[in-house]
Amino acid sequence: MLKPSKNEKKIISEEPLLEVTPIGDPSSGISAQIEKLVFHKRYHEALDFFELLECEGECQLDSSTYDALITACIGLRSIRGVKRVHNHMVSSGLELDQYLWNRVLSMHVKCRMMLDARVVFDDMPERNSVSWNTMIGGLVDLGDFVEAFRLFFVMWEENSAADSRIFATMIRACSGLEVISLGQQLHCCALKMGERDNRFISCALIDMYSKCGSIEDAQLVFNKMPEKTTVGWNTIIAGYALHGYSEEALCMYYEMRDAGVKMDHFTFSIIIRVCTRLASLEHAKQAHAGLVRHGFGLDIVANTALVDFYIKWGRIEDARNVFERMPQKNVISWNALIGGYGNHGRGIEAVELFERMVREGMMPNHVTFLAVLSACRYSGLSDCGWEIFESMSREFKVKPRAMHYACMIELLGREGLLDEAFALIRDAPFRPTINMWAALLTACRVHKNFELGKFAAEKLYGMEPEKLSNYVMLLNIYNSSGKQDEAAAVVQTLKRKGLRIKPACTWIEIKKQPHAFLSGDKCHVQTKEIYQKVDELMLEVSKHGYVMGRKTLLPDVDEPEQRLPHYHSEKLAISFGLISTSSSTSLQLVQSHRICDDCHNAIKLIAMITKREIVVRDASRFHRFKNGTCSCGDYW
């Protein structure tokens, strides 16, 4: 008898049901041990026993033991285990029945070994619906939609009696390809086969029509479902959210609630993301309460969405509280909070959180590095940023991408090192991207380097000839450097192309109700009081050094708005917030465009004289105004 291994001793101590049997009786002893271990989900130990068996040489296993080993390989996603088990099956000469053939195929597919899976599939003496579903489903799951359709057409020619599951799978493939005509043909086939009331096909169709841009057809399919399941509700809500119909998504959520349908963590994750887009704190709080009430208070996906919401609404402490209460965190959870601290100008805390993440054994990915490097650039942490950038490939084997280079270019730009920033673009190991040139252009605008700024703007102009902000930036540079002829040529180009930016809009939520303002807006019922407050504020801030900014277009501010600087949408929203809330209430605003220089300077002083904290989320980042300063450090 061989001496029991450490694993065997562990089995004896942990699980009295599993007794170590001499290896001399492999047909019953080892097989029974493997099957028991798999039954108790102790997959590593099961494969260890199998390795002992392999060392013995000619040992025969029966179908039930191979079935158990396949379960272990799938559970561990062990490619090495798949190869060992499959090779042993082949070398043993075992005759596989249809069930075991399908299990072997499933093992390869679920371990993402699609080339080997195709060999197994082609070698199968017979294929049933399970075989086709497994192979085609694996291709769809991996995004190989074209090959999935090729195989589907082969199956259709061999045996047109496709089941509902394969139709649902192929409808998913149509979603991936975003080809609605194929989805419509499959829809017709499913109806002809009497699958009108099949909930799996209905949910797949709702998803397909949504992703292919026809939310109306998705709603029709949903309306015809005889039993509207949780998945059905989630899918139609997600469809509305996907197309930006946030209010409609929220209405569907309340219909779902009123219908008494059981909600799951995906329901709350979707709604929290909808609330993020709507900037609706009250609805998000209700979703948060529902999340806890329905028993999903510890769910990673939903809580990560909640962290993201609180961050984007400017409530960083609430986001941190949710994060710290999570019993398990994945890399997305860490990335959300690190990025949140960075966006709010709290770079030191973002870096500390990154270091804690590494200490706790969570491996950072390229998104993590983007979050922490962005935090460094927003807060001007140059030395720290370069140290992290250089550690990416050296310590974490993550190759820096263009977005990481853009962060470093902005870090150099903040310090006024424009030549070094340009050199980093020039020497990058790939073709410079739009974000890299945009980072240099921002630095040139702030530091008034018109020649290099013109060069960067022209690069952007060539890469995105239809993007308005590139023309506006170039126009600013020409105006600032006194080149009126060149500026006039840019204006003519804008008119010829018919490019004009939409008016900026600012939202603020007061007493659970959202209020929207445009520049010079006089539609609000309290317009008179709002304008009086604006005039009062402008008079007060002028006593503290405020001077109306000179006429300079920013990427997101059109010329008519420049003629109304006192009554820009941000100032109107802030004035309304001040007259509608107590003196201790901070104000939270969302701006559709990029905040202009004049408003930025004015809001710093408004925050100081009113002793309020004012948080503005604009198109570029968060601005937290307090005591006369902004978290962006006047660089945005």
UniProtKB/TrEMBL annotation:
BP GO terms, sorted: RNA modification
Keywords: Repeat, Transit peptide
Gene Ontology molecular functions: RNA binding; zinc ion binding
Statement: the UniProt record of this protein carries the keyword NAD: no
Gene3D superfamilies the record matches: Tetratricopeptide repeat domain
Domain DYW: residue ranges: 545-636
Family designation: Belongs to the PPR family. PCMP-H subfamily.
Protein name: DYW domain-containing protein
